[in-house]
Design goal:
Blueprint (H helix, E strand, L loop, with lengths): L3 E5 L7 E6 L10 E8 L9 E6 L2 E2 L4 E6 L14
Parallel strand pairs: 3-4
Antiparallel strand pairs: 1-2, 2-4, 3-6, 4-5
Length: 82
């Protein structure tokens, strides 16, 4: 499963992160809207995964959607820029 993490620092006044994953194992996130996402890493194999946490708190259950507008990949650090 490919998972991308996006973290913020104290300079943005929010410390936390977001993890997202495509709906199929070993798939790559590509531009598009991912509907019916459920909690990563516990989502079913056919739905996208999503996790949001911050300030020492996390989501025990969640559903939602996310949109990838652009995805740039590097060989050594895949998925570092979304």
């Amino acid at each position: 499963m490919v998972c991308q993490s996006i973290s913020r620092t104290a300079s943005t006044r929010w410390i936390g992160g977001t993890s997202i994953s495509p709906p199929r194992a070993n798939a790559t996130l590509v531009p598009g809207t991912y509907l019916n996402a459920t909690r990563y890493p516990f989502q079913a194999a056919n739905v996208p995964g999503l996790d949001v946490s911050g300030e020492g708190r996390g989501s025990n259950t969640l559903t939602g959607q996310f949109t990838i507008v652009q995805a740039l990949y590097e060989r050594q650090r895949p998925g570092r820029s979304l």
